[in-house]
Design a protein that fits this description.
The complex is a heterodimer of chains A (187) and B (283). Chain A has 187 residues and is an alpha+beta fold. Chain A is built from two helices and six strands; from the N terminus they run ααββββββ. Chain A has one domain. Chain B has 283 residues and is of the alpha+beta class. In chain B, the strands form four sheets. A four-stranded antiparallel β-sheet of chain B has the order 8-6-10-9. Chain B is elongated. The chains are: A alpha+beta (187), B alpha+beta (283).
Chain lengths: 187, 283
């Protein structure tokens, strides 16, 4: 029988084709796994954002709020809604009777009229102060949120701020001035 | 003897494998292209929902904030809150300066108690009856008396829109008659309440907000100087800007005693706030 040059048998001839096949399978499988991770991450971000928007509708139902109203809204509406959406939240209400600050970290009066109390004007500052610029009232469903002081911003959290009318110039005034309610949501 | 099919079996196998590899790479590229854009529309919708909810909150807050609490608002040396926008550029004009003691936010201290921003705005509009052809204007006047309705809204909007104004967004606040625009002479443009003097905006785009033509005074705002088109949200749309807008209805009580007896009626208006991303501060 004539021996053909280069012919190494029925299986031996197919061995070189194994490498591109394995490479193709690896590429495709890797892409699917990576795509799945990316889509899951994006979906999670969208769920958090949707949660923040959803909760914000509840706290901005009316154009006016005070400590008592916000506390009641948190307890009766925001908490159950956050549970159904499986998101954690922190809501802080601030009275900005002297104007709304642009940069919470700035000490320039036109950017932050409440300096040097810069930390206390942050949306993440927890407190129960009746002073303008500071957190008047807050609520959360996360046990990790401190009862006083700065709360470290959670990873992948969404922060939304909305203007509301609040009692000004004092916390028990009959007249209303400028305020901001901050909604922070995360998972 | 080896058949021709067996002769090329090795080459056929590697060709199939290479084709599989190319298909795999192509499919991977398609998947990457898909996940690159996946969720963008949802994200855009949610961001728009946030902006719209913010603007609705602004609109609601105007009905609760008392005018006197805005008396400390200043121009912060920002041209659009301090100067008149003329055809040649910004010009010093007291009517436009929010820090002016006579025409700025400081005059709101004269209105203590629970007098809301919208109460003053309604009073500003209550001196004309559009049904008999009197054109309502936001001019800080009720007849000949000074009633700073426009200024109150301007001061409130300056503060309430700060987060967006400092992020490159421009806003425009306008009032308009809420009857069907088709029944109002001039259609939609005819329904708009015109401004005499400062408009409630932070835009300096002359093709959207018009220009001041009366040196040192306050003229009715018109585009192109000929009054062919009214400034406002429609002008922004005409200029190709992508706006988000919200409207809110309100009524103004108009009273007339000229016939000897008191005749009152409600006139329906609506406010509209529009916002758009702008590059006018960069250009």
């Amino acid at each position: 029988m004539k021996k053909l040059k280069g012919y190494i048998g029925p299986l031996g001839d197919d061995i070189p084709s194994i490498f591109p096949i394995v490479f193709a399978v690896l590429i495709f499988t890797g892409t699917i796994i990576y795509a799945n991770q990316l889509i899951s991450e994006k979906a999670r971000q969208l769920e958090i954002r949707e949660g923040a928007v959803s909760l914000s509708y509840l706290v901005t139902e009316t154009g006016f709020t005070d400590a008592q109203t916000l506390g009641k809204t948190c307890k009766e509406k925001v908490g159950p809604r956050a549970s159904s959406l499986s998101v954690k939240y922190l809501i802080t209400l601030k009275r900005f009777c002297d104007g709304i600050p642009i940069d919470f970290k700035s000490t320039a009066s036109e950017l932050n009229p409440y300096s040097p109390e810069t930390e206390k004007t942050s949306p993440f500052y927890i407190g129960a102060s009746t002073r303008a610029g500071e957190t008047w009232v807050s609520c959360s469903n996360d046990a990790g949120v401190p009862s006083d002081g700065i709360f470290e911003q959670p990873k992948d959290s969404v922060v939304m701020s909305f203007p509301v009318a609040v009692p000004c110039p004092e916390a028990d005034s009959f007249t209303n001035g400028l305020g901001v309610v901050n909604v922070v949501a995360w998972k | 003897m080896i058949s021709p099919g067996k002769k090329f079996r090795g080459q056929a196998a590697i060709t199939d494998a290479l084709i599989l590899l190319f298909i795999s790479i192509f499919a991977s590229l398609l998947i990457f292209s898909f996940i690159g854009t996946w969720g963008e529309d949802q994200d855009q919708v949610l961001r728009s929902a946030y902006v719209l909810n913010y603007m609705q909150s602004v609109s609601k807050a105007l009905y609760y904030v008392d005018s006197s609490t805005l008396s400390e608002v200043k121009s912060d040396d920002i041209d659009v809150y301090k100067k008149a926008l003329a055809a040649s550029g910004f010009e010093t004009n007291n009517y436009y300066d929010l820090g002016s003691p006579d025409y700025g936010c400081g005059q709101l201290a004269k209105y203590p108690g629970t007098l809301r921003v919208t109460d003053l705005m309604k009073r500003d509009l209550a001196d004309s009856d559009p049904e008999v052809g009197e054109k309502p204007t936001l001019d800080d006047q009720f007849g000949n008396a000074q009633v700073p309705g426009r200024t109150a809204v301007r001061c409130a909007m300056k503060e309430l829109m700060k987060p967006f104004a400092f992020s490159g967004y421009k806003y425009y606040f306008e009032a308009m008659l809420s009857q069907d625009a088709g029944t109002i002479a001039g259609g939609t443009a005819g329904a708009l309440v015109h401004y005499e003097g400062p408009e409630i905006t932070n835009s300096k785009d002359k093709s959207v907000v018009g220009v001041e033509t009366l040196a040192g005074g306050k003229s009715e705002k018109k585009l192109n100087g000929d009054g062919a088109e009214a400034p406002g949200c429609f002008s922004a749309v005409r200029n190709g800007l992508q706006i988000l807008a919200i409207s809110s209805p309100f009524q103004v009580l108009y009273s007339d005693t000229s016939s000897g007896s008191l005749q009152s009626k409600f006139i329906k208006y609506k406010t509209r706030i529009c916002i758009w991303q702008s590059r006018e501060d960069i250009a």
